[in-house]
Amino acid sequence: MSMNFERIFPHAKAPGIIGKLYESIEYNAVIGKRTNYGTRGDDVLYVMLADNISANTVVGGSSIWRKDIPKNDGTLRQMAVPYYEVQTSFTTNINEEAKFDKLGAGKSLVEFKKIISLQAMAQRRAHITFFGADASENQGLFNAASETTSLPADSASNNKLTTYIPGELMEFLVSQARELGNLSWNMLKPIVIVAPIDAINYIRSKIVPLTAYQEKGAGTSSIAKIFENVVYDMNGLNVKLVPCSYMKGKGAGNTDVMLMLAPGVEIPEEDRDSTGYFNTVSADDYVNTFIDDALEYEEYQNPEMYQSHEWVINSIYTPAYTVRADAIRAIEYNYA
To answer: Which residues pair with 50 in a beta bridge?
Structure first.
């Protein structure tokens, strides 16, 4: 019995195209408000001014009539916020288009390259959100942290994330969230944690074991789940976990960083008898972090030249800013 084995070149092709996977960073989760106050003008790279106001209150009292009645006043300030223009482009020609059409990708070459360009713009926007556009100006939410701390050693002298005692790691994260709540009288919400995906997956999957003291959910729930429950019970804060490779190696000594911040503000209703009555001045506009789109996206095509076309995508926006640096904390750690 004999068998012939011969390679046969295919005459059929599977439909569609297999693409590489890219990280999708939910950077909008750390932005309390995206506005579009800026407009195109003769000089679009102007500076936006963000107004903020505070109250200076003095209360006096005496058992006898006095003439020196205390004066109350407010302080008006403005924060300068620069705009940056970001552009990307791509070209096509008739030969390239003909070759691409044979792939059967279901999209034209122009659509394909436009998708790549828009992803590049989003990646740039995410980077500017965290680190700003000008390093010399200390921009971005990462650089705005009011406090940077290192993960301390646990009771067994472990100081790496994956060797840390799970219950103690959960308690440390709660302590950081508690500080955010303390500094804002529980008005800054929600809690967003931005960290590399290995750290996010670890705290989402590492079960807190039963210990000498019984935590709610111990033995069945992960570090992240118990953390979310405790923080919610503390002051009604919801927790959002955002995987972000940009935080890899960004700490001192090439350590990873876990950024904990509160982008929004929730102001309770106040009446005239409230000690927080000033909160009603602009309760609808209160926000902690923001970014402004003077021009979200503009697309145009340059004249054809030598049977080639060029498309340009343009955007103008600010880095992300915070008006309350106390609402951002950076935690440096070694993963393993």
So the answer is: 79
Rg (CA), the chain: 27
> In the block, which residue shows the tokens 């209150």?
57
- Show the 3-state SS of 148-215: EEECCCCCCCCCEHHHCCHHHHHHHHHHHHHHHHHHCCCCEECEEEEECHHHHHHHHHCECCCCCCCC
- What confidence tens digit (pLDDT) does each residue in 179-224 have? 988 887 888 888 999 999 999 999 999 988 866 445 555 566 899 9
Q: Taking the model in full, what pTM does it have?
A: 0.83
The mean pLDDT of 265-294, rounded to a whole number, is 80
Nearest by Cα to 324 from 265, 278, 281:
265
Cβ neighbours for 278, distance < 8 A, ≥ 6 positions apart: 55, 57
CA distance 169 to 215: 13
Tens of pLDDT along 140-177? Answer: 999 999 899 999 999 999 999 999 999 999 999 999 99
Answer whether residue 12 shows pLDDT above 70. Answer: no
Closest alpha carbon to 289 in 256, 326, 242: 326
Instruction: Work out the average pLDDT over 30-54.
Output: 71
With CA atoms as reference, report the closest residue to 322 among 139, 184, 147: 139
What CA–CA distance (Å, rounded) separates 177 from 171?
Answer: 10
Helix axes of 166-183 and 223-235: crossing angle, nearest 10 degrees: 30
Residues in the chain, how many?
Answer: 336
The contacts found for 246-249 with CB under 8 angstroms, 24 or more apart, are 246/25, 246/126, 246/127, 246/130, 246/131, 247/142, 247/194, 247/195, 247/196, 248/196
